[in-house]
Amino acid sequence: MAKISIDTLLTRAEELFSVGKYENALTVYGLLLRDYPSNKDAKIGIYLSDIGIENGDEAQALFDYYQIIKNEQENAGETMINLLSTLDVGNEKVNELVKSNKDKIEYKDGIGYKDFLRFIDERGDFKEAFEDVMFSTHIILKNREEYMQFIEELIQRGQKELALQFLDSSNGNVHKDQEIYALYHKIKDD
Hints:
mainly alpha, two-stranded parallel ribbon, 2 strands
């Protein structure tokens, strides 16, 4: 029996994925991997379909990202596989931190700021830890002090654009605060 064309299987899997039929796409990517075990698109498709079963929006965003870098980078497949395997580790770490927190009910949909700081320490790289958390959950800042510390941390770590976005998105009352003005000036002066 002849093998099915790699392009035919890949196109079919991507069509299923695009319309949100993640389990079906997973099956087709699996068939593709069976016949072509080193195919990076199939490996990525397996990861993304698995993510899609849990969170379709996240999977679609990652799929779109892969389509963009695939046309721009020579090693896009390897980059994406590394990112996806990092996300798996990141999700496990975030879930572990959230579960271990005694306020876990409050953090049901996110991770507390102190847990996020511990995650950065464990991870050893602010940017990677931040990206992992942003892909899988969000950071809960319980009070003004944590908000200010978070902005300071972003500035110190060279994430000035992100710090500006957080400052700009805060409500109008906060903009009247002198400490907020000082943060804007700190970003501008660096």
